[in-house]
Amino acid sequence: KVAIKGIERELICPACKELFTHPLILPCQHNVCHKCVKEILFAFEDSFADGGSESSNQSSPRIRILASSMDRIDRISRPGIKHSSLTPRSTLFPCPGCQRDIDLGERGINGLFRNFTLETIVERYRQAARAAIAIMCDFCKPPPQESTKSCMDCSASYCNECFKVHHPWGTLKAQHEYVGPTTNFRPKILMCPEHEMERVNMYCEICRRPVCHLCKLGGCHANHRVTTMSTAYKTLKEKLSKDIEYLISKESQVKAHITQLDLLLKEAEYNSERAKQEASQSFEKLYHVLEEKKSAAIRAIETSKNIRLEKLQTQVEEYQGLLENNGLVGYAQEVLKETDPSCFVQTAKQLHVRIQKATESLKTFRPAAETTFEDFVMDTAKQEDILGELSFHSNGLEIPEINEEQSRMYNKALISWECPGKTDSADIYVLEYHKLNREEENVVWQKIEVCGKNKVVSNLDDDSCYAFRVRGYKGSICSPWSREVILRTPPAPVFSFLFDDKCGYNNEHLHLNPRRTSVESRAGFPLLLGSERLQVGCYTTLDYIIGDTGIAKGKHFWAFRVEAYSYLVKVGVVPSNKIQKLFHSTHDVTSPRYEQDSGHDSGSEDAFFDSSQPCTLVTLGMKKFFIPTTPAAPKDPESRMLPLPSCLGICLDCDRGRVGFYDAGRMKCLYECEVDCSGIMYPAFALMGGAAVQLEEAVIAKYRECNDDI
């Protein structure tokens, strides 16, 4: 039985997920029910007839056809071949077992063999399954037959033959009630176990059991409190219903706990496998480092050996030549016999060099190379001690957390972190970062050691996302990595400038700080004195200020902050040839925003301002960012209002003639438009009423100091 039960997976059709019925062997050696093969092929035929719609894929509730298989099927009808009703025109069959298109050949289903062996095994499995739950006849001689009926009056099960014998026609037993085979023989009337002829009709509340009237009159329940069966039925049913309702109400909670425990089991198993994998990877890295060091050391020793052997071999050859000095001396003596001066000098000069060299070699002997390799002995004692102390992460070190509010990305990245316990338990921190690139399969982290809790990272690519993480070290023990934080760099190099306090600067309405990094409009007496026309309109004034540095070419980015209380601020760019027009235009504008006589809100000054401005500006104020009115902009005014970011940025591309306005915190573009960059472009700002603008400070070297408080 165990063997039969264990092979159930092998007896399931991959198409209908039920036991095989007349299985056919496909060319790929997978088995599919004969009925399933026909349904799949007919489903394809219907799909092609309907144009391959998705709804046609569901022509059979038992079979689900993949769209990818439909795209690959071959509908070309071969000439000269007559297809039967069971063989669709397509010669390819999508096997549900291997998900491949199988060529059934010209005969289609008729060319497939039935798997009689598999049919036999399936039948044996069915018989074993039926035998495990079958109810046998109680009256058959061994071996008993499977019962077909159960008599509720006799409380017994019978096969067909035994039932006829024990319930002959025309007798009282023929009147018995019979049902299908069962082992649950329930009596029609519940009788008292103590008084077998009496029916139970009361319920003892003390003993909590049904009783008859004789039990109450003179039996063991004579002095007990009893109630009628109908009352007990109603009371117990109400209690049971309430208890069931309570259990049902808590069922979701229990299921949630079970689900949570299942997740914890899977998580524990997954984390253990991951920990083993990470441990294996760590040791593999050590093995890799050791193998590299080993290879480098062996290469160095081999190179030194070759050099030394070459020197010694050369010296051997030199001294080998000394053994031939006798011939050299004889040759020299013959040369001395030469009487012609010119011939003698020609030969004797080279000969004298050889004689001199041999003479010097004989005077002093010194090996050309050392034979010892003492310089190549490696001291690994320190490394052995470190490996001996190798252990897992210590729970004593807190996991640092990168503070996203204090961290920022501008001209450089300032990464700040802190420990949850506010204690500096680590001696040193390691900050790692890498550029997010979908094309790179292997991530290479850049590592920086930091003695404090913040670090400035330079040389980052523009318009790119970087992931940062940090961990603490105390001796050889390290904490786990912190959660990765992703920051995006500005879309262009950062452009640095200050507010210009000379060109058009109105010190009566505007106030600059000494560093010229912030400007504030003063809604004071000048505005009040000019409000004499308040009864016929709203007196407004815009005070402009520009940057002290211009941009002639390239792509640049700068950021600033607008105070939350600001009523109206306009920001953008202005070309040099329109600066004079900007500052000499009329500042005082009468706007019919509200007139008592008109009684309506025209809003016409918005169009007036947009059309009359000599520069490209967007409007900010009252904690809103207003998208300018353009043909492509939404018509609904509320749709053009965005929440004002805490930090805004402007990206000017002079080469393309475009300017973009960004949420500098997320480096997300809010609005972009074309701009005339024919001249030198300057950052421009306009303020009205109570408003203030603060330029974003560049990340400078002072943040590199080891200081916990930034």
Description:
- The chain has 710 residues and is of the alpha+beta class.
- A hairpin with a 4-residue loop joins β6 and β7.
- The protein contains 13 helices and 35 strands.
- It is extended and about 160 Å long.
- Helix content is 30%, strand content 22%.
Examine the secondary-structure arrangement and name the CATH architecture of the domain at 493-532 and 539-587 and 613-628 and 639-709.
Sandwich
The amount of helix comes to 25-40%
Mean of pLDDT: 77
Instruction: Give the CATH class of the domain at 493-532 and 539-587 and 613-628 and 639-709.
Output: Mainly Beta
Which structural class do you get from the secondary structure elements?
alpha+beta
Total number of strands: 35
The poorly predicted ranges are: 52-90, 586-612, 703-710
**Per the principal axes of the C-alpha atoms, what is the gross shape?**
extended
Strand percentage, roughly? Answer: 15-25%
**What count of helical segments does DSSP give?**
13
Our measurement of the CA-to-CA distance between the termini, rounded to an integer number of angstroms, reads 74 Å
Largest sheet: 7 strands, antiparallel
CATH topology-level fold name of the domain at 493-532 and 539-587 and 613-628 and 639-709 = Jelly Rolls
Largest beta sheet: what is the strand line-up?
21-22-35-25-31-32-33
CATH H-level name of the domain at 493-532 and 539-587 and 613-628 and 639-709... which superfamily? Answer: SPRY domain
What is the CA-atom radius of gyration, in angstroms?
49 Å
Domain Fibronectin type-III: 399-492
InterPro entries: B30.2/SPRY (IPR001870), B30.2/SPRY_sf (IPR043136), Bbox_C (IPR003649), ConA-like_dom_sf (IPR013320), COS_domain (IPR017903), E3_ligase_FN3/SPRY (IPR050617), FN3_dom (IPR003961), FN3_sf (IPR036116)
Domain B30.2/SPRY: 477-704
Keywords: Coiled coil, Cytoplasm, Cytoskeleton, Ligase, Metal-binding, Microtubule, Repeat, Transferase, Ubl conjugation pathway, Zinc, Zinc-finger
